[in-house]
Amino acid sequence: MKVLLLNGSPHEKGCTNRALQEIVSILTKNAIESEIMYLGSAPISGCISCFSCKKTGKCFINDKVNELIDRLDTIDALVLGSPVYFSSACGQFISFLDRFFFAAGQKVSGKLGASIVSCRRGGATATFDELNKYFSIRSMPIVSSQYWNQVHGNTPEEVEKDLEGLQTMRTLGQNISWLLKSIEAGKKAGITFPENEQIISTNFIR
User: Fold this and answer.
1) What pLDDT band is residue 94 in, cutting at 50, 70 and 90?
2) β partners of residue 104
3) Which of the pair, 206 or 42, is modelled with greater confidence?
4) Cβ distance 174 to 144 under 8 Å?
5) Cβ 89 vs Cβ 121: under 8 Å
């Protein structure tokens, strides 16, 4: 079992990373393999709706989007981490997620999904809702915690003082661990992920 945590902040060792590290500490205690994938600080191109990924299974832009798609068979859960920019996730992270979830399609179905956000003061819940929409459109069970998954602080040192926020991250780590082990036990008992109908797309043209 492996959890991949995406650090969508341009700051590799910033507040978002501090929150993700708290989750990793709990996953490690539960013998769950984990890795934080940092996307870098360079601009990331957004989706241009060329639909080439529907033919090839990959994005025509060969960057970390395709790297993640190639690794999906080894990943059981995804955690999305982003700072809050104007009550929204980091722009480059949204560009990455738009391309990844569109190109990956149903390859992510059945994998656990969770999102966490870091903010100085406000905009956390709007960003949290924004990130969770990627899971709900791809049949990914969303893992929750004891509160909305957010930490507050302008620096990692300030995040250390957000005791409730860090506890929320630890609870999230526990819930991810429990659900992964429950799914594994279910598979051993012969319970598999439901096979869905072929997707119907209806364009509302009048």
Assistant:
1) very high
2) none
3) 42
4) no
5) no
DSSP for the chain reads -EEEEEE-SSSTTSHHHHHHHHHHHHHHHTT-EEEEEE--SS---------THHHHSS-SS-SHHHHHHHHGGG-SEEEEEEEEETTEE-HHHHHHHHHHHHHHGGGGTTSEEEEEEEESSS-HHHHHHHHHHHHHTTT-PBP--SS-SEEE-SSHHHHTT-HHHHHHHHHHHHHHHHHHHHHHHHHHTT--PPPPPPPP------
Q: Note the pLDDT of residue 205.
A: 72
Spatial separation of the C-alpha atoms in residues 27 and 175, rounded to whole Å: 10
CA atoms in the 13 A half-sphere facing the CB of 22: 26
Task: Tell me what the mean pLDDT of segment 116-130 comes to.
Answer: 97
Sign of the alpha-carbon torsion through 5, 6, 8, 12: positive
Q: Decide if pLDDT at 128 tops 90.
A: yes
* Mean pLDDT rounded to a whole number for the chain: 96
Query: Model pTM?
Result: 0.95
